[in-house]
Design a protein that fits this description.
Shape: elongated
CATH superfamily of the largest domain: TusA-like domain
Strand order of the largest sheet: 1-2-4-3
CATH class of the largest domain: Alpha Beta
Distance between the termini: 57 Å
Largest sheet: 4 strands, mixed
Structural class: alpha+beta
Order of helices and strands: EHEHEEHHHHHHHHH
């Protein structure tokens, strides 16, 4: 069925992110928050950007997708409601699936396939397992495989959806049981995911509210932390640091 705003699409400002090799999702979310009621934007990407759909839906947008060519998707977003962005709604959940862009660097078709798989796992309608539990299961699998980057991201997302310190206490006890004391001591203990857990627990004991704790752990364990970020960044050499300090 044709959208009631079909005739307005030509006037939507276009945001072409095909050239971006870094995380394009925050760019779109920032622009979307500035769109007024009964106005829209058009996002152009070389693969269908499905992760945007639920995020912008939580902000009050409808969408319509057009495949212009094999390497060009145009998604028209139209704002029918003014909704506030929150962690709880999912629109502002920490850590969007940024790694998808890495697959785009290889091949647009591969990126589209990865997006479809992501949608099946994380956007499944009427899922039998709630999202918070899925994130904890994913975190547990990642820790079992010593993928601490992924585990950290999953833990922070689960915390944004309400996981409690008591639940984390029991989870980390299970990791010690299943992975062994030696492995826990040498590998899990020094990891970013265990550091995140310790900081959350300490700050909650000090009476800090959840939103403030989320802001703090995103500062310490967010995308600016190279052990958590999913994009390659050349480490700064000594001479580079000296030049940076002289600026």
């Amino acid at each position: 069925m044709e959208a009631s705003w079909e005739g307005k699409k030509a006037s939507f400002p276009v945001v072409d992110v095909r050239h971006l090799t870094a995380n394009f999702l925050p760019v779109i979310l920032h622009k979307a928050q500035q769109v007024s009621l009964n106005e829209g934007i058009c996002v152009v990407q070389s693969f269908e950007p499905k992760p945007l759909y639920s995020a912008l839906e939580d902000l009050g947008f409808e969408h319509e997708t057009k495949k212009a060519s094999a390497h060009e998707y145009r998604v028209y977003f139209y704002r029918t409601q003014m909704k506030a962005i929150t962690f709880e709604s999912g629109a502002d959940m920490p850590f969007k699936p940024t790694a998808i862009v890495n697959f785009k660097s290889i091949d647009d078709t591969l990126a589209g396939t990865v997006v479809d798989f992501w949608e099946l796992i994380w956007e499944k309608k009427d899922s039998a397992i709630d999202l918070k539990t899925k994130l904890l299961l994913s975190m547990s699998n990642a820790i079992g495989a010593s993928r601490f980057r992924q585990a950290t991201r999953e833990l922070i997302k689960a915390y944004s959806l309400g996981v409690t310190v008591e639940e984390m206490d029991e989870l980390f006890s299970l990791f010690a049981w299943n992975q062994g004391i030696g492995h826990f001591s040498s590998e899990i203990g020094p990891s970013t995911v265990f550091g995140t857990y310790k900081q959350i627990k300490k700050r909650e004991q000090e009476g800090v509210d959840r939103r403030s704790i989320l802001d703090e752990i995103m500062e310490d364990f967010g995308d600016r932390n190279p052990e958590v970020n999913t994009f390659y960044k050349r480490q700064m050499k000594c001479c580079d640091r000296r030049e940076e300090a002289q600026k």
